[in-house]
Design brief:
Layout: H1 2-12, H2 23-35, E1 38-39, E2 43-46, E3 55-58, E4 67-72, H3 85-88, E5 100-101, E6 126-127, H4 132-142, H5 150-153, H6 170-176, H7 182-206, H8 219-232, E7 233-235, E8 242-244, E9 260-264, E10 268-273, H9 292-299, E11 311-314, H10 316-322, H11 329-336, E12 344-347, H12 365-397, H13 400-409
Antiparallel strand pairs: 1-4, 2-3, 4-10, 5-6, 7-8, 9-10, 11-12
Helix pairs in contact: 4-7, 4-8, 6-7, 7-8
């Protein structure tokens, strides 16, 4: 009787989509309700008036601290919830290798509590945490026509449509990503994916020929799913494992405009509004403190607008090109004095777009304050580096006596006080 009542209640539940003619999205929403997801009555999933693809919008104003939707842990797609969980569990250590791929949605983030001054453009999406168990589970589920996750897969981007530079022709990577060695970084990512498939995933699949077929569960599929995981997965705050989180991963990203934060508990995950969301406004999560290069490498897109985490890297050669030829010999003298002139990352300096955050206590307030603090720290670090670059240029262009004096001081007027509480 209780089950019938529960099923009847779900049938009567509002399907949280703006346009039910979008059948894949409507089917996915129905699947979510069957799995026990709960949605705020003022949110809808939609392909209209969103940043990209499908997203979520508020139909009426939502206050900070309100729960936008909740997700039962049983609906998270991870090795433990896959249909081959029993097969994978005894081999978790076997499927763990030294190399793994890092998701966009770090748990310390889905991104609002990230390491304070770290720009994620500097972090490779390859980490020491292996995703092989998740990728093996995904290969099985994606190729299983009766998978319980099929409605979810239907609203994800087609694997052959992923635009990560890992799938660009090599000539395009080398010509378009030559700056800062990004082409080499991408090539290294691909090499690690291939190594993990060959040395970890493939031997495991060959041990289970009734479940896996290397002709179906191919290297190309593995790499495509690795890119999907890079772009869509979250790292669970409770377990530390990577997983796909339906609905949460439909939220789009605009740098500095995040208004929602994913919170974890033992039984559910909740997406909480960390700012007031106006009627018609899109619900946005953050993919981390990444500049355009980081977003392209991990998520397969760049933003059309300014990004506060964008930066350019200056080298000694750049300084040489900026000063008269007669003074270029000073660059070598500065380097001999251990004054760093290479790999100076100069951020784009501009006021953030984000809305000031109230300090009044409320659910989600700490995440909002953390994000605003990250934005201010990015601006502070960018300003400090700009001062450093200007100081170097002034020194190079100074009269000889002033140059010698500055050289002897080691440019100590450039403060290196990194106290985040300043």
């Amino acid at each position: 009787v209780a089950l019938k009542i529960k099923m009847a209640a779900r049938k009567k539940a509002r399907v949280p989509v703006a346009d039910e003619s979008d059948k894949p999205l409507a089917d996915f929403a129905s699947w979510c309700l069957e799995k026990g997801f709960r949605f705020h009555p003022k949110v809808q999933m939609t392909a209209r008036n969103v940043v990209s693809g499908r997203g979520m919008v508020a139909t009426s104003e939502i206050k900070r601290g309100e729960t936008l939707f909740s997700i039962p842990r049983t609906a998270l797609l991870n090795p433990s919830n896959s249909s081959i969980a029993g097969l994978l569990k005894p081999f978790q250590e076997t499927l763990s290798s030294a190399d793994g791929i890092k998701p966009k949605h770090e748990a310390k983030e889905q991104g609002n509590d990230e390491d304070e001054s770290e720009n994620e453009d500097e972090e490779a999406p390859i980490s020491s945490t292996s995703w092989a168990p998740l990728l093996v589970a995904l290969m099985h589920e994606f190729k299983n026509p009766t998978s319980t996750w099929a409605p979810y897969f239907a609203i994800l981007p087609a694997l052959d449509a992923l635009s990560h530079p890992h799938f660009w022709p090599q000539a395009s990577r080398e010509s378009l990503l030559a700056f800062r060695g990004y082409a080499d970084d991408i090539a290294a990512d691909v090499q690690k994916m291939e190594h993990e498939y060959t040395t970890v995933a493939l031997p495991f699949m060959q041990q289970h020929p009734t479940v896996f077929d290397p002709a179906v569960h191919t290297l190309d599929l593995y790499k495509r799913l690795a890119a999907l995981v890079m772009a869509y997965s979250f790292t669970d705050e409770e377990t530390g494992g990577a997983e796909l989180v339906p609905v949460a991963d439909i939220l789009n990203h605009i740098t500095g405009r995040c208004n929602a934060h994913l919170c974890y508990s033992d039984s559910t995950l909740e997406m909480i509004a960390i700012r007031r969301i106006k009627a018609g406004e899109e619900v946005l999560n953050t993919y981390g403190n990444s500049g355009q290069c980081g977003l392209l490498r991990k998520n397969g897109f760049v933003e059309p607008a300014w990004n506060m985490f964008d930066e350019v890297t200056l080298s000694a050669a750049d300084f040489a090109a900026a000063v008269p030829e007669a003074k270029r010999s000073r660059i070598e003298r500065m380097q001999q004095a251990d004054i760093q002139l290479d790999d100076l990352c100069l951020g784009v300096i501009k006021s953030p777009h984000s809305t000031p955050v109230s300090t009044a206590p409320a659910k989600g307030a700490s995440a909002a304050r953390a994000q605003s603090r990250e934005e201010l720290l990015a601006l502070r670090d960018g300003a400090k580096m700009l001062v450093r670059v200007v100081t170097v240029l002034e020194t190079l262009l100074a009269e000889e006596d002033e140059f010698t004096k500055r050289l002897a001081s080691g440019l100590d007027n450039d403060s290196d006080d990194d106290d985040d509480d300043d």
